[in-house]
């Protein structure tokens, strides 16, 4: 059906453009006042034909919205929280895709690009390498693959990504004999102290490698606190899903009863919340109906260890400082945060760093000070020294960033060691842990 649009252009412009009515409202107006009922598509075609200005501003052209996104990005707000804030502030139709487009166009990235990781060689590739002369093998460049398992949650632009990649792929420098001897002496001191504390029963048994020290010989727990969570799970016959469920159940019980610590709750209240857990979580109930008192004691001990760990998590989560919090205290945006973290990673790698406990607190402080001295940005942050009212908070924030870089550095060391073993690379491992052992 053909409709007569003559004489309706000015009325349409006034309603749709000047009065800001929606297309549905304009259609309803014409239907009621002029008995004019074209379809919505017909209205849209006519608006286009009349060249009416668009009422919809693309999100990537909305300068007010872009400025607000940039402001939230500088505060290290993540994508999910940023979207919720913007929707609550007057952009309810903003989608995650729209927000991502704004950040990409404006270069406000929260993530670094994937870092180069050496590809695992197949058996045929290993045989091919072994058949080649060593000079040819040395000239080969490691293949690169995409791997996100080791990436930080806060990410950045390609330029910063390159610096991070270089810091992680650059070879570590050889340590001087003096440094090796110093680390060996420190390691021997740790080992002697550890054995003495074990003899005096002033430390718990070590069930895995810690700070380069080997685990203690297997033995039954000497006192309750030596029972590990893995042992507790085995005693209560919990698989992974059941273990997650029982922790979530006890966490809810603790929140309902205001319990965050055993000593603060008192014996009666603590026993009451544990009994409630047994009543609420049916899979473990048969274990607490056995008649053998020794077996029953083992079950209660295992439950005690899990409950203690849940309340510990509640306490730590309550005062947990995130990487975003640390960067906000220091006044760093995501890009600056990536720069300083990449710089500290290069320092750790050049130092063949292993862990704070292995190298000692004095050396750890020296590395941190070197990091600060080599960064004009960090020097400006700590310039006021003791006169800065935020000195303590800034020191804690710097330590938090350093510990995060250290963790990722050690994760990379572990992956490199596994990669070398899987690729059949012989010779002395490049892991700095070898420097703590006598030559």
What does this structure look like?
This protein is mostly helical and 439 residues long. It has 21 helices and no strands. Helix 11 (229-235) crosses helix 15, helix 12 (240-257) crosses helix 15 and helix 17 (334-350) packs across helix 21. The protein is extended. The termini are far apart. Mean pLDDT is 78; it is low at 113-121, 125-173 and 426-439.
Short description:
The chain is mainly alpha-helical. It is built from 21 helices and no strands.
Residue share in helices? 55-70%
Strand content: under 5%
Q: Major sheet: size, sense and barrel closure?
A: none
The helix/strand series, from N terminus to C terminus, equals HHHHHHHHHHHHHHHHHHHHH
List the helices and strands and how they pair.
Layout: H1 9-18, H2 23-34, H3 40-49, H4 63-74, H5 79-88, H6 96-106, H7 123-131, H8 134-139, H9 158-169, H10 177-199, H11 229-235, H12 240-257, H13 262-265, H14 267-280, H15 293-318, H16 323-330, H17 334-350, H18 356-359, H19 361-373, H20 376-381, H21 391-422
Helix pairs in contact: 9-17, 11-15, 12-14, 12-15, 16-21, 17-19, 17-21
Keywords:
single chain; 439 residues; mainly alpha; 21 helices; 60% helix; disordered C terminus
